[in-house]
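Ticket 4471: requesting a sanity check on a complex prediction with pyridoxal-5'-phosphate. Repro inputs:
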Amino acid sequence: MLVYLNGRYIPKAEALIPVDDRGFLFGDGVYELTRGIRGKLVYEEGHGLMLERGMRELRIGGPEVLTREGLREISERLLTENGLAEGDATVYAQLTRGVAPRLHVFPENTPPTVYMSAAPFSSPLELRRGGVSAITLPDIRWARCDLKTVNLLPNVVAKQRAKEAGAFEAILLRDGAITEGSSTNVFGVIDGELRTYPKSNYILPGVTRDVLIGLARNLDFVVNEAPIFAEEIDRLEELFLSGTTTEVQPITKLDGQPIGDGRPGPVALALLEALYQHLGLEASVAAR
Ligand SMILES: Cc1ncc(COP(=O)(O)O)c(C=O)c1O
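Returned structure tokens:
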């Protein structure tokens, strides 16, 4: 597997980062996970903007370090060189504040570390069709969840707790409302209307979330960017997750209780189908 590190394409085993890298020492970095389908980055603009925003807000590198064109060119080369140009793949990009002696303050004149890699991906259609379970946990993250930083410890711990509970995802609750999942955004259907937490500093506004809101409106679903409160959970007709690799993942059980009739609902399945079409993927999820 060939990866990209600081301007070079090298075998992954040779891609080594010094122990003084601030990504290692402080989690001082940003990342983005995109999808490469038939050799092309999908939703490149949204993912590029997310990365640029994180770099700008945290002052990691300048726009010249990884432009949107650079992101595309490196991604496409990694897909081609790794034999992934025909199928479905993910592309990972990470930038850290670079290598410097361990002091909290930002180092001066230190170039960022830029790393990118690609891996094959195949959509787990059976999980989508069958639905999965989730648990709720308190959202104990910081107040800048809108930045996609590699500082993911609360998310990692939440996902582990979900796994240990036999669940697929941990759905996080802040101030009595569902914010998002540990690595996904969350949508619910109440009284036939779609709801998802509004864009704010308390969620990572995923690219898939935006795409799904557009697709839902095209399908004439009413979308309300408003919180789902804990006391409304038993009124949920449907609940589902969204994300680059999670696509549209129906949740059929939350904290051991069925959601709706305990099966993936029509809105989630319609959106999954619409997303596959939008991505140019062929899998059909129609049958309920
Ligand atoms: C906390 C969190 N929310 C939402 C998402 C979904 O974002 P996207 O749709 O851009 O993959 C992610 C993806 O990494 C995430 O980590």
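Notes from triage: The mean pLDDT is 96. Leaving this open until the requester confirms.
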